[in-house]
Design brief:
By secondary structure, the chain is mainly α. The protein is 53% helix and 0% strand.
Length: 76
C-alpha cells in the first residue's frame, strides 16, 4: 500500500506514523487538508511540519498539496 499514490518517505508501514495517522483520522476525519493553500490553516499542519523539520535537522519544513507545487517552490 502506498499513501497518496507515492511512497517518497517510506512511511506506509512505520508503526509510529500509523499510530499518529490513526489518532488524527479519528480526531479530524478523512478530509484533512494537505496544505494551507487548499483548506486554510490547521494546527496539525504546524505540528507535522515542525516534526519533519526536526527529523531532517533543518530549520523548517513546508507541506505542499502536490509535487507540482513542490517543483514550483524550488524554482521561486
Amino acid at each position: 500500500m502506498e499513501l497518496f499514490g507515492t511512497s517518497y518517505l517510506q512511511l506506509q508501514k512505520h508503526p509510529e506514523y500509523l499510530q499518529i495517522l490513526t489518532a488524527n483520522l479519528q480526531r479530524h476525519g478523512v478530509n484533512n487538508p494537505i496544505s494551507r493553500n487548499n483548506r486554510g490553516h490547521f494546527e496539525i499542519l504546524e505540528k507535522v511540519e515542525s516534526q519533519l523539520a526536526s527529523m531532517w535537522h533543518c530549520e523548517a519544513a513546508c507541506l505542499l498539496a502536490n509535487g507540482f507545487l513542490a517543483g514550483q517552490a524550488i524554482y521561486t
